[in-house]
Write a structure and sequence with these properties.
Layout: E1 5-10, H1 18-28, E2 32-37, H2 39-44, H3 47-54, H4 72-79, E3 82-88, H5 90-98, H6 104-110, E4 116-120, H7 124-127, H8 130-141, E5 145-146, E6 150-153, E7 159-163, H9 167-182, E8 188-193, E9 198-199, E10 205-206, H10 213-224, E11 228-233, E12 245-248, H11 252-262, E13 268-271, E14 278-280, E15 299-301, H12 305-315, E16 321-328, H13 333-343, E17 347-352, E18 364-365, E19 367-370, E20 375-377, E21 381-382, H14 383-395
Parallel strand pairs: 1-2, 1-3, 3-4, 4-5, 8-11, 8-13, 11-12, 13-16, 16-17
Antiparallel strand pairs: 6-7, 9-10, 14-15, 17-19, 18-21, 19-20
The chain binds flavin mononucleotide (FMN).
The site of flavin mononucleotide has 15 residues, from helix 2 and helix 5.
Length: about 400
């Protein structure tokens, strides 16, 4: 495997001088290190210092192109296993948390799918500023690792939390993130996502409340962990990551056909879609008129999408792992345990649909994992954090 590489982002804190030692320690830990400075950082430490230490060019201005004709922010974002921003100023953190890209460092982070580690360093009052607190919370929810600053005397003479964490702690976080970023490298993950719409007539359908947010989070997490990703998605408004191949479908049958076409070569299949169990027996053409007092809608059973994929993979002798999602009320764990066996999947992940704060359409989720070697719960977290948790467990399936 090629050497893991880190982009070390250095922003304008007094602690910028400590980034020089950090760059050396990251190199000793096995990383190729490339440094991106903010303009404020350059007032504290020079590009030449980092270029000499790392034997790599530095980036600072967003229009710089060390290799002519290649956009550096895209190139560096693609090549990095991890981006580490240390020290991270209040200003840079708030920009990262809210998605600004007005300098090379923040633009590079926007262009990256890989894990992000931030190590704040600032005056204690700045560290408890509401915008900084919110930005850090947002970054955590987006899957970033926050290396907490230490308590003690800071450069401005105050005492409190705000000192840049030790180089050893930051290197450890970078290594952990780097392991995560290659967890699924060279593997292909197929995800079904969203609801299916089963047509009643040309304008009406039988559907469900799945938003596709969990499927989107799984696709992002899988990309973050190095996988090649294919998503077969029902009708949703979410944006899947650009690095994922997305096939859009409407009905359960179309989802099955598309997923069967994507199955060969898949190492892991995650059935996160809420596939309609039943569909109207026939679709009326045009728009049904409001002429009857009562109409009866007859529904027939849809194919079992995941069940069919499992059977197809097992019949063809493919060593594909399968994870099913089950939307169950809080007392549905026993049903899910039975489903794991009857569906022939490796693990089943239960969403508690009786709660209003997690599950359908919400930003957070809480997953219960029922696997071949045991059970676990994720705790309530953002859907992306849940997805990372799930894919870590999936990587350890026997
Ligand atoms: C001497 C000096 C020390 C500073 N130290 C810090 C610091 O430790 N943390 C911080 O968040 N901002 C600090 N600042 C303020 C930042 O440099 C300022 O907000 C700047 O705009 C940050 O830009 P950047 O985030 O693009 O690097 C310091 C400013 C000065 C003049």
């Amino acid at each position: 495997m090629s050497q893991p590489s880190v982009v070390l982002g250095v922003s304008g804190s007094v602690a910028a001088y400590r980034a020089a030692d950090l760059a050396r320690d990251l190199m000793r830990a096995g990383f190729t290190v490339r440094v991106c400075l903010t303009d404020a950082a350059e007032r504290f430490v020079s590009r030449e210092l980092f270029e000499a230490l790392t034997s790599q060019p530095c980036l600072q201005d967003v229009f710089e192109e060390p290799e002519r004709g290649r956009m550096a922010h895209i190139d560096w974002a693609r090549q990095a296993s991890v981006i580490v921003v240390a020290p991270a100023t209040a200003n840079t953190l708030v920009k990262l948390g809210f998605g600004l890209g007005d300098d090379m460092l923040t633009t590079l982070v926007l262009a990256s799918e890989r894990p992000l580690v931030v190590a704040p360093a600032m005056n204690p009052t700045m560290f408890t500023n509401a915008h900084v607190v919110e930005a850090l919370e947002r970054l955590r929810k987006q899957g970033a690792t926050v290396v907490e600053p230490a308590e003690g005397d800071v450069a401005c003479g105050e005492n409190g939390q705000g000192k840049l964490a030790s180089a050893a702690t930051i290197v450890h976080a970078a290594l952990t993130a780097s392991i995560r970023s290659s967890r699924w490298t060279g593997k292909r993950i197929l995800i079904t996502s969203g609801p299916t719409y089963e047509p009643i007539d040309d304008v009406r359908f039988v559907g469900n409340r799945s938003s596709g947010k969990m499927g989107e989070a799984l696709a992002r997490a899988a990309r973050m962990m190095g996988a090649e990703v294919a998503v077969v998605s029902g009708p949703v408004a979410v944006q899947y990551p650009a690095g994922a191949r997305v096939v859009r479908v409407q009905t359960a049958q179309a989802m099955l056909d598309a997923a069967l076409a994507e199955l060969p070569g898949s190492d892991l299949v995650i059935g996160a879609a809420a596939v309609a169990d039943y569909r109207p027996i026939e679709k009326q053409s045009g728009k049904m008129r409001r002429t009857h007092d009562r109409i009866d809608l007859t529904l027939v059973r849809n194919p079992d999408v995941l069940g069919t994929l499992v059977a197809e993979a097992r019949n063809s002798g493919r060593n594909t792992r399968f994870i099913a999602f089950a939307a169950e009320p809080s007392d549905g764990l026993e049903i899910a345990r039975q489903k794991r066996v009857s569906k022939g999947v490796d693990a089943i992940v239960v969403n508690d649909v009786s709660r209003s704060d997690v599950g359908f359409g919400t930003e957070d989720n809480e997953l219960a994992w029922i696997g071949p070697t045991g059970e676990a719960t994720s705790g309530k977290r953002s859907k992306l954090e849940c997805a990372l948790w799930l894919l870590e467990r999936a990587a350890e399936l026997p």
